[in-house]
Amino acid sequence: MAVGLVVVTVAVGLALHVTSVAPEILWSVKVRQAAAHHLPQLDDYISDDELRWTTWTRSVIHCADLCARDVTCLAFTATTVTSRGVECRGHCGLGPGSTLGNRANTRAYSLQVLTWLDKTCTKDSDCTHPKSVCFAGHCLCSPGFFYSHSRDECLAGELALCTTTVRDCTDADLKPLMVSYPGWYIFQHNLNSSVTSWAECVEWCSMDPACRTFEYNFSSSTCFLAHVTALQEASYWRAQDNDDINHYMKTCA
Question: How far is CA 132 from CA 11, 145, 181, in A?
């Protein structure tokens, strides 16, 4: 089962997930050690400001991958042209102050470099970020701590106890981008749901502000939503005998 941010993943060693649920999920794309975030206010525009290069690519994901490989690329636009593919333009920066020109079928993205999340590891000491652990071969926040995209750190939730030295992530700050912990689950704290597919399970939790975590059993196609985290219910945090079940938790703004 995949580890890390779900949706579309092309990082080495991570499986590919594609879902068409909430737009924020669809367009927050994990690309190697970076995340591309959709900038809807700049859609259908292009700019020559701080333009580094222009090339044609097969897809938006390929365009994001090219930008992630270029250390000078901090933003990009992808214009879909039916006859040729996607025109990809990499920028050192792109924002509301940029000089813009109209270009239909264009989507704009900023690139956030992830300094440590999802890097491969063999032991906890390989993951040096505070509150991080080596989980299933990848550096993740300790179970129950929310990864913060803006701070690039692990934060406790609103109801976490004994975490006075950790800045909290409030429920209002939670994002429908999930981090997965394969083979683990929170015992006796899940609410059964009627959905049966993994994509629907992601969507249900994403749309429910009370949902902080969920589990999905791939063998039985069963979805369990929850309002608690492994940090809040540490005594109920259990390992499964196999990888049929995955625990997922939202991330923080």
Answer: 19, 9, 13
CA separation for the pair 75, 89 (Å, rounded): 9
Judged against a pLDDT cut of 50, whether residue 25 lies above it is answered with no
Query: Is the Cβ–Cβ distance between 5 and 37 less than 8 Å?
Result: no
pTM for the complete prediction? 0.59
For residue 243, give the nearest of 207, 218, 213 by alpha carbon: 218
Nearest alpha carbon to residue 250 among 172, 176, 151, 198: 176
Kindly indicate the confidence band of residue 242, based on its pLDDT and cuts at 50, 70 and 90: low
Buried b (16+ CB within 10 A) or exposed e, 219-250: eeebbbbbbbbbbbbeeebeeeeeeebbbbbb
Phi first, then psi: give them for residue 176, nearest 5 degrees. Answer: -80, 45
End-to-end CA distance of the chain: 25
Q: Tokens 């990009």: give the residue.
A: 76
Q: 116, 110 in Cβ contact below 8 A?
A: no
